[in-house]
């Protein structure tokens, strides 16, 4: 199994014009690098998706956000806080976690009896796209989901 991240990190194809730009919704949460950060991120994600009428994505989005925030809290060095950014534009929901550690994650395939290390396998399996990009103060790890419901995918 091979995991594929989009390492371009650009937001170019994500930024839309016209009706999609007018329907852009965004939430940013600053979270402490503490145990309760993941619970706060989950709650904020659920509330935003319900307010944005994207509740059909809740289970998958909450799982992706949990993995991204957990990785930042556990592995980012020199970070007192992480930022969770949710942005819905057109047909995409982008979940992005920023931290001050410039070191990019090193996804790997865990061994059969490992109890951890499966986060990026989940991200790779569930996200439409995911990747990492440099920021002015560290990095951002992001994942995207298609917001269209099953019946809308062919339109």
Describe the structure.
The chain has 155 residues and is an alpha+beta fold. The chain has a single domain, classed as 2-Layer Sandwich (Heat Shock Protein 90). Helix content is 29%, strand content 26%. The protein has four helices and five strands, in the order H-E-H-H-E-E-H-E-E. The protein has helices at 19-22, 37-51, 58-75, 119-126, and strands at residues 25-32, 81-89, 92-99, 129-135, 138-146. It has a five-stranded antiparallel β-sheet with strand order 1-2-3-5-4. Helix 2 runs antiparallel to helix 3 and helix 3 packs antiparallel against helix 4 (119-126). The model is unreliable at 1-18 (pLDDT under 50).
What's the tally of helices?
4
CATH homologous superfamily classification: Histidine kinase-like ATPase, C-terminal domain
Structural class: alpha+beta
Q: Can you summarize the main beta sheet?
A: 5 strands, antiparallel
Order of helices and strands: HEHHEEHEE
β-strand number: 5
Helix content: 25-40%
| Terminal residue distance | 31 Å
Spatial ordering of strands, largest sheet? 1-2-3-5-4
Average the pLDDT over all residues and give the rounded result: 83
Tally the structural domains. Answer: 1
Q: Beta fraction of the residues?
A: 25-35%
What is the name of the CATH architecture? 2-Layer Sandwich
Global geometry: globular
The stretches of 5 or more residues where confidence is low (pLDDT under 50) are 1-18
What is the CA-atom radius of gyration, in angstroms? 15 Å
CATH class: Alpha Beta
CATH topology: Heat Shock Protein 90
Defining traits:
Heat Shock Protein 90, alpha+beta, 26% strand, disordered N terminus, 155 residues
């Amino acid at each position: 199994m091979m995991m594929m991240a989009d390492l371009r990190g650009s937001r170019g194809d994500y930024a839309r014009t016209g009706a999609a730009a007018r329907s852009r919704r965004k939430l940013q949460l600053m979270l402490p690098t503490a145990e309760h950060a993941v619970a706060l991120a989950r709650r904020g994600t659920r509330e935003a998706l319900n307010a944005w009428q994207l509740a059909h994505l809740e289970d998958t989005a909450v799982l992706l956000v949990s993995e991204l925030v957990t990785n930042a809290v556990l592995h980012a060095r020199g970070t007192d806080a992480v930022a969770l950014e949710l942005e819905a534009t057109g047909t995409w929901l982008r979940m992005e976690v920023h931290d001050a550690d410039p070191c990019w994650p090193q996804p790997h395939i865990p061994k059969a009896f490992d109890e951890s290390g499966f986060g990026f396998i989940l991200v790779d399996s569930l996200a439409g796209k995911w990747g990492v990009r440099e920021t002015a103060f560290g990095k951002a790890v992001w994942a995207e989901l298609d917001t269209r419901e099953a019946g809308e995918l062919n339109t």
